[in-house]
TrEMBL record:
SUPFAM superfamilies: DNA breaking-rejoining enzymes. It comes from Paracoccus simplex. PROSITE patterns: CB, TYR_RECOMBINASE. This is Tyrosine-type recombinase/integrase. Keywords: DNA integration, DNA recombination, DNA-binding. Residues 69-147 form the Core-binding (CB) domain. It comes from the Bacteria.
Length: 361
């Protein structure tokens, strides 16, 4: 009656889709939901099968195919039917929302009060106001089309009311510019930790990924997406580069500094991708290492900030820095204008030679 299927996403991660189907008197009822862990899919499947055995269970599941669908099922419908590419960050947020209690509510019961309670739960769990704002923003895209597209009763007015309340309570807010940069000492600790784990076969080569992030200024999702076919001498094609108004079609050639090229040459061509790992794997490894080593408030994205800062400290102009970072709006690089040409902080970094001992510095 119930099945679980595995599906590998473009970023290398695996999604487990649990599905229950049943026929009765010529009528069909079904329900499905996707999870990041197989154990969660199995638990959902057991719960649904138990519900079916109860009086009225079949009728309840039959209603869920239409207006009685849960928020989790509405999310699955949105992901499954969207013809536009859903970005990695948005997909991850939607999967995370499904792990909260609000996702099990019938859509008609997802009121502004429940949304505010969900935002408060995120805040109490340590998430920042800008992050909570992103969660509600991604959900609002589903609220906007659920009723006219699928007759699923998600009311956009409830989302608008919840957003207003959350702003007034300070639960959501604009993202603050981060200025956190890693020191060489911090990076040395991380590199030693990552190399040791990699040589023992316990982890992906995070020391190479981190060094590449600094020297190339590439974002995490861009790093794991670059293919060998995207590589040319001195430059690389970054596909679907992050853009606030567009999610796809932003393929841009950017310069690849020689230090980044050295790191690429050490990677085995065993996959179509140069760094064939998932964003989740990279993020988890980095976060765990920082916690283990006592490195506070350092995010993987801070490595890109470090890389762009390095370019300006090396005396690069805004156009020269943009040719590497891929920024298409030069005013967005004005935040770095205060940096003076003090030299290359990473000149002579021993870890570059450890990664690639064959190429002289």
């Amino acid at each position: 009656m119930g099945t679980i299927t595995e599906r590998r996403l473009k970023d290398g991660s695996i999604v487990y889709t649990a599905q229950v189907r049943i026929m009765r008197d010529g009528r069909k009822a079904s329900a499905s939901s996707s999870f990041e862990r197989r154990s969660a899919a199995e638990a959902w499947l057991r719960r649904k099968e138990a519900e079916l055995k109860k009086p009225g269970g079949f009728e309840k599941m039959e209603r869920h195919r239409t207006g009685g669908a849960t928020l989790a099922e509405a999310i699955d419908t949105y992901v499954r039917t969207s013809t536009k590419k859903i970005g990695n960050t948005k997909a991850q947020v939607l999967r995370t929302i499904k792990s909260f209690d609000i996702a099990s509510l019938p859509c008609a019961a997802v009121t502004s009060q429940k949304l505010v309670e969900f935002a408060q739960e995120l805040f109490d769990g340590g998430r920042q106001p800008q992050t909570i704002g992103n969660y509600l923003s991604h959900l609002s895209a589903i609220f906007a089309i659920a009723e006219p597209a699928w007759k699923i009763p998600l009311d956009p007015a409830e989302m608008r009311a919840a957003t207003t309340v959350c702003k007034n309570l300070g639960l959501i807010g604009k993202s603050k510019k981060r200025d956190r940069r890693p020191t060489r000492a911090e990076m040395n600790k991380l590199m030693a930790h990552f190399e040791d784990r990699w040589r023992k076969g316990r982890s992906l080569p995070m020391h190479k990924v981190c060094a590449f992030a600094i020297f190339s200024t590439r974002r995490q999702e861009e790093i794991v997406s670059i293919t060998w076919a995207d590589l040319e001498a001195g430059r690389v094609l970054v596909r679907d580069m992050k853009h606030p108004g567009e999610k796809e079609g932003n393929d841009i050639w950017v310069d690849l500094p020689p230090e980044a090229e050295r790191i690429v040459k050490t990677m085995p061509a065993e996959s179509s991708r140069i760094f064939p790992y998932s964003t989740d794997a990279v993020s988890t490894a980095f976060t765990r290492a920082c916690k283990l080593l006592g490195i506070e408030d350092l995010h993987f994205h801070d490595l890109r900030h470090e890389g762009v800062s390095r370019l300006f400290e090396m005396g690069k102009t805004i156009p020269q820095a943009a040719s590497v970072s891929g920024h298409r709006s030069w005013p967005s690089l004005q935040r770095y204008s205060h940096l003076r040409a003090t030299g290359d902080k990473w000149a002579g970094w021993e870890w570059l030679d450890k990664i690639d001992p064959q190429t002289p510095s």
